[in-house]
Amino acid sequence: MEGIDMTGVALQLSVVIPTFNEVGNVSVLIDRLTLTLQDIEWELIFVDDDSRDGTYQKLQTIAACNPRVRVLRRVGRRGLSSACIEGLLASAAPYLAVMDADLQHDENCLPAMFQAVHAEGFDLAVGSRYIEGGSTGAWSQQRVSVSKWATLLSQKILKLTLQDPMSGFFMMRRSVLESAVYRLSSLGFKILVDLVVSSPQPLRIKEIPFHFGLRVAGESKLDTRVAWDYVMLLADKTVGRYIPAKLISFASVGTMGVGVHLVILGTTKTLLAMPFVAAQSTAVLVSMVFNFYLNNLLTYRDQQLHGRNWWWGLLKFMLACSLGGAANVGVANYLYGNDGWWVLSGLMGILVGLIWNFGVTSIFVWPQRGKP
Ligand SMILES: Nc1nc2c(ncn2[C@@H]2O[C@H](COP(=O)(O)OP(=O)(O)O)[C@@H](O)[C@H]2O)c(=O)[nH]1
Ligand SMILES: [Mg+2]
Asked: pTM score, two decimals?
């Protein structure tokens, strides 16, 4: 190409490594990768979600003297899948790998994965714990069964034939990313499921067994909220083309909010003998706080509000939802005046209120670029 110096050695492999509080692991990982990848031209791209333990600063120091290492820092954002996708999009090699930073993924599998996608005609090589020769290592029984259930769900609902679609350790040809990139959901923890389902063509996949290692430094970020993210990913990959996953999450939280409302109304009215108006107002207030709290925790986990922003967000949420409530009653009342069918009028009111609340809060309470 004219004007561009193409005399350097061409890069073959980009390894993308998401990090969140992994300061104790990254140096060891880089040393191990340097040994394992001796015969390949490689680069490492760390994507750090503004870790609090100095991971970013440490990586920056390493990157300053190791030209194979780069670090991308995201602020006010969280999410394993979206971090991987952004790292992959910042990469330059024809073959791309994703692996964890915590030394639980066996880097000795990388050459075999590279061989599979580079020389054996596979599009994707997956480090698999659920085929012969692989294992989940020292996982608790509970974690094994949750992972098995999640695997089963993706096999049944998304028709995946992979034995270990929950794996976060894989390598692919660049074309896999390029052809799936516009369809990726980027929700939650399960980037491999997202990639495979978003690929327009069936992929030639090789699974390579490995033993999931022990985490020595730092902590797992896997918590129960990851399960919610996973259900949202499944929803997005099935009905997502019609209804946004965040709207489904928002509506599910709202449904739970109705339950909370009724419990509070019941207790304040019957047990505390409050007048109906006071009991209903208390229930509205409590369920608004409940809705805000859960949406901040689940629906907008990737851009959660904290500290002062949390209180400010709550205020805006309550204001937006009060207007949504007024729209709900207005529409329902208008329809009821026309057709007199209370069920349909009521439901239409709820739908209008829901869409209003979701739309307005997604713009004013959890805007795309939140502050840390
Ligand atoms: N950038 C980024 N990395 C994350 C996030 N959550 C987890 N990670 C990283 O993803 C990898 C896997 O996470 P981990 O907590 O070990 O999950 P587990 O192995 O399933 O217990 C590790 O390298 C984490 O540092 C996140 O929200 N953002
Ligand atoms: Mg881990």
From this structure: 0.85
